[in-house]
From TrEMBL:
A Gene Ontology molecular function term of the record: nitric oxide dioxygenase NAD(P)H activity
Keywords: Detoxification, FAD, Flavoprotein, Heme, Iron, Metal-binding, NAD, NADP, Oxidoreductase, Oxygen transport, Transport
High-level lineage: Bacteria, Bacillati, Bacillota, Bacilli, Bacillales
Descriptive protein name: Flavohemoprotein
Species of the source: Paracerasibacillus soli
Cofactor(s) listed: heme b; FAD
Binding site for heme b: H90
EC number per UniProt: 1.14.12.17
Role this protein plays: Is involved in NO detoxification in an aerobic process, termed nitric oxide dioxygenase (NOD) reaction that utilizes O(2) and NAD(P)H to convert NO to nitrate, which protects the bacterium from various noxious nitrogen compounds. Therefore, plays a central role in the inducible response to nitrosative stress.
Domain notes: Consists of two distinct domains; an N-terminal heme-containing oxygen-binding domain and a C-terminal reductase domain with binding sites for FAD and NAD(P)H.
SUPFAM superfamilies: Ferredoxin reductase-like, C-terminal NADP-linked domain, Globin-like, Riboflavin synthase domain-like
Length: 410
């Protein structure tokens, strides 16, 4: 990504002057933006996750991106690490250049509506119009490369391709695995351990298509993709997951599911230092891919696999992990149950992963740490790793939301 040399100094100064108000009222602006955009372009509900809309996750993510872009409008390349996961998701969701003018138009309208004409005057809106175009061009350029990369490989494709459910396996009370093969029986692209696919669910009775991203839970080269999906049940004010329940209830062997090519930059490294994989709940899915991959590609690398879940009834792939540890002496696995059942005997810790326990089972802080799970779980693991003085470049996590919610939590 190049610097924004096309913007004049006055435009840059005006945009940067809006940083404090964006920091304060960004959520209001982006919430208004989505409302206006969906009113005028309801067809975009086929792309955007409406559950995240209701929860406000999408608005927060966009607000943080806009705020970061405004603060670094004269050097957009400095925020490349932050936008890289977003561009990966955009490619996976099939976001195209023609979507960006729609977003820009409604973002400016939302700024005017929320901030009023005194703040969002002609000069401010004009400057932001120019700045948005630079930001959009940066995203479009990166995403063009990602589309080319996804298609210019053996078996690659753009958009969505029909896959068939070759096998459906119940892994626990709430997690089921779906093994997917191309419906056309043609070659399909490989992936890197830790990546995900987007599934397109056309659910009877639903007005719009639902897109969801699920990590691949197997190693590449297995002759199929595997996703392991948690059924999201209704809890309190949170409704049941539309897509996860549809997949569990309606997808059977032989069913067709359109999916995008694998995407994502949460990828296991090829270092020789110990690999520490930490998961909570269904966060074990990318960790399983990494575990299966590393035991094949780096058979001498020390691996510590730590999984936390409620109890044995919720513990997916337990026997599979046990088989891997029995076969590979360099792999050690630990299980933590926060609410074990009387029948649960085979676990290593009751409660949660705390600093003392974690630093006792991990041999060194000079290791590659990967973790994934619920937000609160990940915030706790991140705090523990920072307290353990793990270098930032050795901390890797997957979170389908604003990454700073993990790294900045107290």
């Amino acid at each position: 990504m190049a610097t924004t040399t096309l913007l004049d100094e006055q435009t840059i100064n005006i945009v940067k002057s809006t940083v404090p108000i964006l920091e304060k009222r960004g959520d209001e602006i982006t919430s208004c933006f989505y409302k206006l955009m969906f009113q005028n372009h309801p067809e975009l509900k086929n792309i955007f996750n409406q559950t995240n809309q209701r929860k406000g996750d999408q608005s927060k993510a966009l607000a943080n991106t806009v705020y970061a872009a405004a603060a670094h409008i004269d050097q957009l390349e400095t925020i490349l690490p932050a936008i890289q996961p977003i561009t990966q998701k955009h490619r996976s969701l099939n976001i195209k250049p023609e979507h960006y003018p729609i977003v820009g138009k409604h973002l400016l309208l939302a700024m005017q509506e929320v901030l009023g004409e005194d703040v969002a005057n002609d000069d401010v809106i004009g400057a932001w119009g120019k700045a948005y175009q630079e930001i959009a061009n940066a995203f479009i350029t990166v995403e063009k490369g990602l589309y080319q990369k996804a298609t210019n490989v053996v078996g690659g494709w753009e958009g969505f391709r029909d896959f068939k459910v070759a096998k459906k396996v119940v892994e626990s009370d709430v997690i089921t695995s779906f093994y997917l093969e191309p419906a056309d029986e043609e070659p399909f692209s490989s992936f890197e351990a830790g990546q995900y696919i987007t599934v397109k669910a056309n659910i009877p009775g639903e007005s719009y298509t639902h897109l969801r991203q699920y990590s691949l839970s197997c190693a590449p080269g297995e002759g199929m993709y595997r996703i392991s999906v948690k059924r999201e049940d209704a809890i309190g004010n949170n409704p049941a997951g539309i897509v996860s329940n549809y997949l569990h209830s309606h997808l059977e062997e032989g069913s067709i599911l359109p999916i995008s090519a694998p995407a994502g930059d949460f990828i296991v490294d090829n270092e020789t230092k110990p690999l520490i994989l930490i998961s909570g709940g269904v966060g074990l899915t990318p960790m399983m891919s990494m575990l299966e991959t590393v035991t094949k590609s780096q058979p001498n690398r020390e691996v510590i696999f730590i999984h936390a879940t409620r109890n044995g009834k919720f513990h997916a792939m337990k026997e599979h992990v046990k088989a891997i540890t029995n076969k590979h002496s360099q792999v050690t696995a630990y299980t933590i149950y926060d609410n074990p059942l009387e029948a649960d005997k085979d676990y290593d810790k009751q409660g949660f992963i705390d600093y003392e326990w974690l630093t006792n089972v991990v041999p060194t802080n000079d290791a590659s740490f990967y973790f994934c799970g619920p937000k609160g779980f990940m915030q706790a693991i991140y705090r523990h790793l920072k307290a353990f003085h793990v270098a930032e470049e050795n901390i890797h996590f997957e979170f389908f939301g604003p990454a700073q919610e993990i790294a900045t939590a107290n």
